[in-house]
Amino acid sequence: MDPEHEQLAQLISNVSDSLHKEMQEGFARLGERINQKETRLDRHGALLQTGARWSARMVRWTEDVDQQQEERDKKIADLEKRVRNLERKKNGHA
Q1: pLDDT tens digits along 61-93
Q2: pTM over 0.90, yes/no
Q3: What's the pLDDT tens digit per position in 5-61?
Q4: pLDDT of 94 above 60
Q5: Alpha-carbon distance 10 to 69, whole Å?
Q6: End-to-end Cα distance, the chain
Q7: What secondary structure does DSSP assign to the chain, as a single string?
Q8: CA angle 31, 20, 27 (to 5 degrees)
Q9: φ/ψ (deg, to 5) at 91
Q10: Radius of gyration (C-alpha) of the chain in whole angstroms
Q11: How far apart are CA 77 and CA 40, in angstroms?
């Protein structure tokens, strides 16, 4: 091979090596950023799941409290009715 072709071959080899190195570094940086984003998304997912579970528990709790209050209100209404009936009987309005 003549010196010109050898220089051209060396230049192509050097450019190829340089490009290969730059691409490897770029992919490494890209991999790091993807890992950071993945970590952040995992954190967000965990927060969403925690919030959803907490919301579901709160809904169940409020439904239980509503049912208990309804039962208590019925008992109070029944007791008030019994007291009125007893008072009527005592006062002779039966």
Answers
A1: 999 999 999 999 999 999 999 999 999 988 876
A2: no
A3: 899 899 999 999 999 999 999 999 999 999 999 999 999 999 999 999 999 999 999
A4: no
A5: 87
A6: 128
A7: --HHHHHHHHHHHHHHHHHHHHHHHHHHHHHHHHHHHHHHHHHHHHHHHHHHHHHHHHHHHHHHHHHHHHHHHHHHHHHHHHHHHHHHHHTT--
A8: 5
A9: -90, 0
A10: 40
A11: 55
- Residue 2 one-letter amino acid: D
CB 74, CB 68: distance < 8 Å: no
Sequence-distant (6+) residues with CB within 8 A of 94 are 88
Which amino acid, residue 92?
Answer: G
For the chain, how long is the longest CA-to-CA vector? 133
